[in-house]
Amino acid sequence: MCRNIKPLFNFEPPASEAEIRDAALQFVRKISGSTRPSKRNEAAFERGVETIAAAAAELLRSLETSQPPRNREEEAAKARARTIIRFA
């Protein structure tokens, strides 16, 4: 599950709230061991996602770098090239 979490820092345009929430959701799914919580645990699961998303957003706002922002399309093309080599 966590293989779907992608780096979100130092991109132009910056990571959206939806991307941050998706990463938080994947993280909570991984540590809870379930993709969908039971009705009994649904509130705790959602609270965990929201808390982690807020912490991740704060982290991304606080980080600094001297590197120029990366281009999402270029990074995606590099990832596709690595996949082709890996599974060829």
Task: Describe it.
The chain has 88 residues and is mostly helical. It has one domain. 60% of the residues lie in helices and 5% in strands. The chain contains three helices and two strands, in the order E-H-H-E-H. It has helices at residues 17-32, 42-62, 72-87; strands at residues 11-12, 70-71. A two-stranded parallel sheet has the order 1-2. 9% of the residues are buried.
Largest sheet: 2 strands, parallel
Oligomer: single chain
Overall tally of domains: 1
Question: Mean pLDDT score, rounded?
Answer: 92
The largest beta-sheet arranges its strands as: 1-2
Order of helices and strands: EHHEH
State the helicity in percent bands. 55-70%
Coarse structural class: mainly alpha
Q: Which overall shape is indicated by the principal axes computed on the Cα atoms?
A: flat
How much of the polypeptide forms β-strand, as a percent range?
under 5%
User: Gyration radius, to the nearest Å?
Assistant: 16 Å
Distance between the termini: 23 Å
Number of helices: 3
Stretches with pLDDT under 50, minimum 5 residues: none
DSSP strand tally: 2
Keywords:
single chain; about 90 residues; mainly alpha; two-stranded parallel ribbon; 3 helices; about 60% helix; flat
